[in-house]
Design brief:
With 94 residues, the chain is of the alpha+beta class. It has five helices and three strands; from the N terminus they run H-H-E-H-H-E-E-H. The mean pLDDT is 94. Residues 13-92 form the Winged helix DNA-binding domain.
C-alpha cells in the first residue's frame, strides 16, 4: 500500500522552496525567488501556503528602508519533507 504524497509539498515551486530551505539556515525572499526562477507574486502565495501549514517560518523586517522577508524551515516542515521523500521512494522502488 502506497502512502499518499503530501499535496502541499507535491507542487513544484513549494517543493523547490522546501528543498532550498533545507540546505540553508535561512533565506531571504529575493534569494529564493532567484534560485527558484519564480515570479514574486507566485512565490509570495506559495510561501504563505507553506507558512500557514507550519512548514516554514516567515519573518518580515526592514533592512534600512527596504522590507526584508526571511524564511526558515521548521521542525514540522523537516518532518513533512522527510515523510514526503519516504513516500516518494515507495513509488520509485515498486
Amino acid at each position: 500500500m502506497f502512502k499518499d504524497l503530501d499535496p502541499l509539498l507535491h507542487a513544484q515551486l513549494r517543493l523547490a522552496v522546501m528543498s532550498l530551505l533545507l540546505s540553508v539556515e535561512s533565506a531571504d525572499f529575493t534569494f529564493i525567488r532567484e534560485k527558484t526562477n519564480s515570479t514574486a507574486g507566485n512565490l509570495s502565495v506559495q510561501l504563505d501556503k507553506l507558512s500557514e501549514a507550519g512548514y516554514i517560518s516567515v519573518e518580515k523586517t526592514f533592512k534600512g528602508k527596504k522590507p526584508l522577508t526571511t524564511c526558515k524551515v521548521t521542525k514540522k516542515g523537516i518532518k513533512a519533507f522527510e515523510e514526503y521523500v519516504t513516500a516518494l521512494k515507495q513509488y520509485i522502488q515498486k
